[in-house]
Amino acid sequence: MNDLRRAFGSLSDETKVGAVIEALCSEGKVAESVQALEQVYGTGRSKVPNKTKTVMIDAAVTSGDTSLISLVMAALAPNLNGYGVSTCAYKPEASKMQIPDQQRQSAVLYATAFLSINTASIGLELVDATTGFDTDIPGELFLLEALFLLADVFLWRREAIKKVMDGLQSIFEKDNIRKCRVEASSFVAAYLLGVPLLCYRPSRESMALIGIRDNLDKLLVWAMAGPASEVQIDGKLIETDETVALNLLKSLPTSMRRGLGLTGEEEALNRVRWALAEASKLLQFHSGLLAEVERRMLAGASVGECVQ
Q1: What is the pLDDT of residues 64-93, one digit of tens each?
Q2: What is the C-alpha separation between 88 and 218, in angstroms, rounded?
Q3: How far apart are the first and last CA of the chain?
Q4: What pLDDT is attached to residue 92?
Q5: How far is Cα 7 from Cα 106, in angstroms, rounded to an integer?
Q6: Secondary structure of the chain in the HEC alphabet?
Q7: pLDDT tens-digit profile of 15-54?
Q8: How far apart are CA 200 and CA 183, in angstroms?
């Protein structure tokens, strides 16, 4: 025991405090670790070791308690480079981007119909070959499909074919890089805007956890960061839902909507278009940070490791 005391006594104060905080986090005592941090470092938390910050953030995220995540991020904010540095305020005259439609659902529907017709035709052909029962249904299905494709080529500019191909790609190929880019974009936007829910995808439920009234513009930009990243890739919304921000505005109390000038659908759409443009500018300006976070996510880094 004396040897243990001597060994512990030989450690620096910073190492001792870090060990205590990390031990508390390992036992799920995240709030207590924040108290320990504040008692030791006070308001000058610039000396908090990176390992300690990582452990605290990951412990809060693992807990799934958004209040603990907010508590830890607020406590570490003075020691987090760039956290909450970006500000935004809606300006009606600001430039707005057009919001592309979410295409995955319709593309998957087209692909499913295509697969169903071909599977049914092939299945019936096999039944014919096995039982000797002759039916014209497979041929009719193939003919119907051929006529549809011809109409698509000459009348609809191959839009249906494109949707079928996109849908097949969505069903059979997992675009992990695209998914990671979307998640990294939401993460970076949340970090720069000071939205503590770094590990969450934007949704009306997650936004409600940190107070919509005081953070509306930040939340709208955060919600549109994912769509903005997909627009920058190829203009298609596959992984994200562009309606999250609009649904958030629609869910606001009537008195709040009136105070914000949201008297109709067009005013709400203008605010969402503004948020999309702001998110796009934010991601472009911090493209280096976005690329680094994406690289870390693809390598399997934790939330705390991405923050560093």
Answers
A1: 888 889 899 999 988 888 999 998 888 887
A2: 6
A3: 36
A4: 80
A5: 65
A6: CHHHHHHHHCCCHHHHHHHHHHHHHHCCCHHHHHHHHHHHHCCCCCCCCHHHHHHHHHHHHHHCCHHHHHHHHHHHHHHCCCCCCCCCCCCCCCCCCCCCCECHHHHHHHHHHHHHHHHHHHHHHHHHHHHCCCCCHHHHHHHHHHHHHHHHHHHCCCHHHHHHHHHHHHHHCCCHHHHHHHHHHHHHHHHHHCCCCCCCCCCHHHHHHHCHHHHHHHHHHHHCHHHHHHHHHCCCECCCCCHHHHHHHHCCCHHHHHHCCCCCHHHHHHHHHHHHHHHHHHHHHCHHHHHHHHHHHHCCCCHHHHHC
A7: 777 888 999 999 999 999 999 888 877 655 557 888 899 9
A8: 9
Q: Which residue has the higher pLDDT, 130 or 89?
A: 89
CA–CA gap between residue 269 and residue 249 (Å, rounded):
9
Strand pairing partners for 102?
Answer: 237
Token pair of 85, please? 């540095």
pLDDT surpasses 90 at 236: no
Which of 93-107, 156-170, 240-254 comes out lowest in average pLDDT?
Answer: 156-170
Instruction: For residue 237, give every residue at least 6 positions away whose Cβ sits within 8 Å of its Cβ, in sequence order, or none.
Output: 100, 101, 102, 103, 104, 227, 230, 231
- CA distances to 12, 26, 199, 215 from 206, in Å: 40, 26, 10, 13
Q: Residue 177 CB: number of other CB atoms within 10 A?
A: 11
Give 3's strand partners. none
Cα–Cα nearest to 289, from 144, 184, 211, 198: 184
Q: How far apart are CA 238 and CA 107, in angstroms?
A: 9
Crossing angle for the helix pair 176-193 and 225-233, nearest 10 degrees? Answer: 140
Cβ neighbours of residue 97 closer than 8 Å, sequence gap 6 or more: 231, 273, 276, 277, 280
